[in-house]
Design brief:
- The protein is an alpha/beta fold and 264 residues long.
- It has a domain at 9-133.
- The protein has helices at residues 55-72, 144-154, 169-178, 185-242, 247-254, 258-263; strands at residues 9-14, 30-37, 42-48, 87-93, 105-108, 124-130.
- The protein has a 6-stranded mixed β-sheet, with helices on one face.
- Strand 3 (42-48), helix 1 and strand 4 form a beta-alpha-beta unit.
- The N and C termini lie far apart (65 Å).
Length: 264
């Protein structure tokens, strides 16, 4: 994902061993993996399936803090700062984070705001991959990175590994791992509980959005009616004012203030 499919991973560690509980909270919709690249760079990988409230701030709180902690703990007592290796936080989302950007891969680094130059030692990097923006079909895949993105986005619907990807052992292994037929009854039940939870949360988000839209429409109609009533009173006041009637009398009939009538 970071180097267009170049084989650079030397080590791979699960930061939090995945144990699927029966009842899941919102915080359990992601999984952290740590990878070590050939040049010593550490990569913290997070997959997020729900666009929860305040996710952008959670990135700063969790992802950036985790990256900074990983960066700082590389050194032991008395070690020189030149021994520090870069840290990349890679977040893969099943929702759109940056609607104003068409690219599915974005990268953020420390940068000066005015002249847009990078900090001399840009060792902390935030990379985001938004799966909904990746729309290439199987026949349009050009490299290993695009094949992995296709697999991540479509693994659930695949009944067999595509022929174009079958020659790569890692894809066969990933497909076998993702295949529900290989799960034990307990694992399958846990997976079903998790999918029900995610489905319910997504429906809750859609329901809240629809309710907000409906409420906005109702408020807009009410505001429109009220505005029409005000305009009607103003028109009556104009006619009464043109007829030479007193301001106090016009105000009594229309309900408009003397200042509003004077301004007509």
């Amino acid at each position: 994902m970071l180097y267009d499919g170049t084989d650079t991973i030397q080590a791979l560690d699960i930061l939090n061993p995945y144990q699927a509980p029966r009842i899941r909270g919102m915080k359990d919709t992601y999984l952290d993996v740590k990878a070590q690249l050939a040049d010593g760079t550490s990569v913290i990988i997070e997959m997020q399936v729900l666009n929860v409230e305040g996710f952008e701030k959670r990135v700063l709180n969790r992802v950036l803090y985790g990256a900074a902690k990983t960066y700082s703990t590389q050194l032991g007592p008395g070690d020189d700062y030149t021994l520090l290796n870069p840290v990349i936080a890679l977040t893969i989302t099943d929702f759109v984070m940056f609607p104003e950007i068409t690219a599915y891969r974005t990268c953020f680094v420390l940068r000066e705001k005015q002249v847009l130059i990078d900090y001399p030692s840009s060792d902390l990097e935030l990379v985001f991959l938004e799966l909904p923006k990746f729309e290439q079909s199987l026949g349009e895949l050009h490299n290993l990175m695009e094949q992995w993105l296709f697999f991540l986005k479509n693994a659930k619907s695949l009944t067999a590994i595509p022929e174009e990807m079958s020659d790569i052992p890692a894809f066969r292994q990933a497909f076998e791992f993702a295949n529900q037929a290989n799960l034990s009854p307990e694992e399958l039940e846990d997976l079903e509980h998790r999918e029900i939870f995610i489905h319910d949360q997504r429906n809750a988000i859609k329901r809240a959005l629809n309710q907000g839209i409906e409420q906005g429409i109702e408020q807009g109609i009410e505001q429109g009616i009220e505005q029409g009533r005000v305009m009607e009173r103003q028109q009556i006041a104009r006619q009464m004012k043109a007829a030479g009637m007193a301001i106090a009398q016009i105000s009594s009939v229309t309900g408009l203030s003397a200042e509003a009538i004077e301004a007509l």
